[in-house]
Design goal:
Layout (H helix, E strand, L loop, with lengths): L6 H4 L3 E6 L3 E6 L12 E6 L1 H12 L3 E4 L2 E2 L2 H12 L9 E2 L5 E5 L9 E4 L10 H5 L6 E7 L8 H15 L2 E5 L10 H11 L5 E5 H7 L7 E3 L7 E3 L3 H10 L4 E5 L5 E5 L5 E3 L12 H14 L4 H15 L12 H9 L5
Parallel strand pairs: 1-4, 1-9, 2-7, 5-6, 9-10, 10-11, 11-14
Antiparallel strand pairs: 2-3, 7-8, 12-13, 14-15, 15-16
Helix pairs in contact: 2-9, 7-8, 9-10, 10-11
Length: 345
């Protein structure tokens, strides 16, 4: 069982506080069409921590987001959606001279989802330590951030500082590994960055490939398939890498395994597999963020790890059947109906 929140923690304003990238997502409306034959797109809001904040909010948690937007219409689009979802973004600045980032994605199920990131001069990479100090990260139960935060300055230093502040305040610090190879000049830099912050982290969320990337030493271990930045294959001994991560500070590693559910790793304990929910896949992007939101919901509510992960698996299963990321995050009623029809948690 996980520890329940202390009375002091229970009085905190936020259940979850998320930090990292935000963007406009353009999703192909021509499902199954090759990228060169796409005729139109649907516009949504995305970015891993942003998606997770929306997912937590829809499940009923009090969620806040520290990101940054450009002073541009794309930033207006993103902030309008987040305000409508009642994610607290009061502490997310608009950055002069920066752009709100953009992602374009094709949808060719079941296994081809070509995706292109436009993040040059983007606003969220300009998050500074001053922005962290202006945000009440300490006033939350969970502080969650993405690995991509560490891909450039000043957001790298700001995130390192935020994790230290959160740990000092007694927050549970959660790292979503979020490996995006094209955001790093060398994949080994990603591994070095992840290892540099593990001492400040309690829980790590990531796929097998992301876990291997966090301990990456040979760039030849990385292979990107179908031009899918989201589908980088990283070879390595995942079990050994999990042990190394746990030895460096985190107490839990949750390995996301797609249709197979997830695997929970705890220091000095055998891994535990938590089964998923079979569904027909339309779009994989955002499924891991939905999983994270469901898992964090259970964690905040004091559920045991298995039940929390089972809810996360259900949230991920729902999102892969839908078009879009944040817009597709389920409500608590939706996900509870989903699991009750499939044997429960």
């Amino acid at each position: 069982m996980m520890n329940q929140a202390s009375p002091q923690q229970a009085q905190r304003t936020y259940d979850t506080f998320h930090m990292g990238r935000s963007c406009m997502d353009l999703y192909s409306n021509d499902v199954g069409a090759e990228f060169i034959h796409i005729k139109s797109f649907a516009a949504y809001v995305g970015g891993s921590p942003t998606n997770m904040s929306v997912g937590c909010r829809r499940l009923g948690l009090k969620a806040a987001l520290l990101t940054a937007f450009g002073k541009d219409p794309v930033g207006d689009f993103v902030t309008h959606f987040l305000n409508r979802e009642r994610v607290d973004i009061r502490f997310s600045p608009r950055k002069t001279g920066r752009h709100t980032s953009l992602v374009i994605m094709g949808i060719e199920p079941p296994d081809r989802f070509p995706i292109v990131f436009y993040r040059d001069n983007c606003a969220d990479v300009a998050l500074e330590i001053g922005d962290v100090l202006a945000a009440p990260i300490h006033d939350s139960l969970v502080f969650e951030f993405a690995g991509t935060n560490l891909s450039g300055e000043p957001s790298r230093s700001a995130t390192l500082y935020a994790a230290e502040l959160a740990r000092k305040a007694g927050n549970t610090v959660v790292l979503d590994l979020d490996f995006r190879p094209d955001q790093w000049y060398d994949p080994r830099a990603y591994g070095a960055a992840m290892r540099s912050i593990l001492h400040s982290v309690d829980i790590v969320l990531g796929t097998e490939d992301e876990i291997n990337a966090a301990l990456l030493s040979e760039p030849d271990s990385v292979r990107v398939t179908h031009s899918q930045i989201t589908d980088a294959r990283v070879s390595g001994n995942t079990a050994d890498h999990v042990k190394t991560i746990l030895d460096r500070g985190p107490r839990i590693v949750v390995e996301k395994r797609g249709k197979y559910g997830c695997r929970i790793h705890k220091r000095d304990n055998p891994p535990e597999d938590v089964e998923g929910f079979p569904v027909t896949v339309q779009n994989i992007l955002g499924a891991g963020d939905a999983f994270g939101a469901g898992f964090l919901y259970g964690y905040v509510k004091g559920w045991d790890l298995r039940k929390s992960a089972r809810l996360g698996n259900a949230c991920g299963a729902i999102v892969v059947t839908r078009h879009g990321c944040s817009i597709s995050m389920p409500t608590l009623e939706e996900v509870m109906n989903f699991v009750s029809e499939r044997g429960g948690l």
